Amino acid sequence: MAIREFALIRRYFAGLGGGSDHLVLGVGDDCALIDPPPGCRLAVTVDTLVEGIHFQPGCEPGALAGRALRLNLSDLAAMGADPLGFLLALTLPAADEAWLDAFSRGLAADAERFACPLVGGDTTRGPLAITITAMGAVPRGQALTRSGASAGDYLYVTGTLGDSRGALAALAADGSGGGELAERFWRPEPRLAAGRLLREFASAALDVSDGLAQDVGHIAVASGLACRVEVASLPLSAALVAAYGIDTARQWALTGGEDFELCFTVPPSRAGAMEQVLAAHGHRVTRIGAMVDGQGVVCVDEQGAALTLERAGYAHF
Amino acid sequence: MAIREFALIRRYFAGLGGGSDHLVLGVGDDCALIDPPPGCRLAVTVDTLVEGIHFQPGCEPGALAGRALRLNLSDLAAMGADPLGFLLALTLPAADEAWLDAFSRGLAADAERFACPLVGGDTTRGPLAITITAMGAVPRGQALTRSGASAGDYLYVTGTLGDSRGALAALAADGSGGGELAERFWRPEPRLAAGRLLREFASAALDVSDGLAQDVGHIAVASGLACRVEVASLPLSAALVAAYGIDTARQWALTGGEDFELCFTVPPSRAGAMEQVLAAHGHRVTRIGAMVDGQGVVCVDEQGAALTLERAGYAHF
Fold first, then answer.
1. For the segment B128-177, what is each residue's pLDDT rounded down to a tens digit?
2. Range of the domain at B30
3. In a shared domain, residues B91 and B128
4. Is A222 on the interface with B (CB under 8 A)?
5. For an engineered disulfide with B252, which of A59, B60, B162, B270 has Cβ 3.0 to 4.6 Å away?
6. In angstroms, rounded to a whole number, what is the distance separating the alpha carbons of residues B91 and A131?
7. Which H or E element spans position B240?
8. What's the whole-model pTM score?
9. Would residue B214 count as lying in a domain?
10. Which CATH number goes with the domain that contains A190?
11. Closest Cα of chain B to A168: distance in Å?
12. What is the interface pTM, i.e. ipTM, of the complex?
């Protein structure tokens, strides 16, 4: 669909998200050209969403597009990187103009909001799938990785956990999107501003995509430590607790996945300053545990007694 | 398939293609980290190959992987960029270990050959599709774009044209890959070394992916000129002419596509020096026409008479 492809790209994607000081050449040549900010490293990540696996047929194209971009921006946030731009590889069963129009509008709105222009891409025919490659810049030596935690570091998360899982439950139960929870599923907020501030404080970080209990395990493994999570401290939204009760809310906070909050570690000596700076910028962060010697992830109750993963929620899934 | 995915990535993809001076952090964190060479711009490109559209079920996974990488490297070559690394988004119907083993071996061989390590990726379940994002570096102000040609510039291509189309014809006719032509289809040579040399000489460049007649049109449009292509000058391989005759070979050179040769323009005052330097480094380049005032692509015969696109080959497709 070569000729058709050019027209489609011009119409729906050229110039999407505006320009940027770092974008030298955007959509329309063999490659995009980016001028990386001096003294920075480039952070790059890619994610694919496939119809029938990651989303169901018939979902609103603009929301889908925005979510695809936000998931990638969340990975940039987890490194403390500022967005430079993204590439879109879009596989479509047919060139449905109404679908493309809604998709590109949703994508443009979020690309502008997060100052992350579309710089290039590829459109192909095939089963519907969206692959986004996001690029960001982070000052040399300041990137947040998974491997820097030390024993004794406190463990934190941004925002609240479990809401995406609540939205999926509401959808499965009655076909509704679940109001506030649905908004959290479809429009997860990439914690770019928090990630930028955390460059100064965090010893390790990642974004919570597969469920907190699993994801903190990556910090534990990469840092050669164990992770102790205080289940009673997990930040829960009022909407989630009201809809499903505290026990289910905690289970979903541990295991639900797709939260796209940052989980990070901070040395105790820096914890107070970090909390002040993040709060001053309007970011909610909650201390949920600590890194300890050993390996694996241990969940503990309010008395400090270890919960098996089954009791902490795993058995329900 | 989260847990399974981690094991699969560790086994088949971590460290693929080796390291590089510019790769700070590879597969296994939220993002890869790359240290771009100072004074360079970043060139980025993405391409997707979908089973049933771009390749048929059952084709050899290692060759498929190598081809997917080479197509992207060809886009870097067309900008005059040196490879820095690539991201792989792989969508698979199932985690078939034999398939993954062959795929990753083929990919590793070409990643090493072209000094372009795998830096990150995503594996998802779904209909088989391969999306590669390649990143390269090009010294500031030296990138080869489509828009820099002037009237009077000579038009050149590297290598020979039409061989991939010949390979597909052989495959359709008797199921054979077509020997030497098949090699050209499955293992197109990204003209990275030629692209690097052409930074000094070329006014515009692209890689020939959709067929020369269509692709030179992009240089014409981007540069605000017309393109005059001398059909008798098109470089043809002996294998293609022997198998299909001169007329068909010329048609396929103009319209066949998937050649992944560089097509570029050079000011007449620089043409002699360019030819010498490219020849000294073992690169075949052929002058096939010139940029002229006007718009569109004009094909001319040996007497300089214009051929309609039908007579030049388009009618056959």
1. 999 999 999 999 999 999 999 999 999 999 999 999 999 888 877 776 65
2. 5-139
3. yes
4. yes
5. B162
6. 10
7. helix B238-255
8. 0.92
9. yes
10. 3.90.650.10
11. 18
12. 0.90
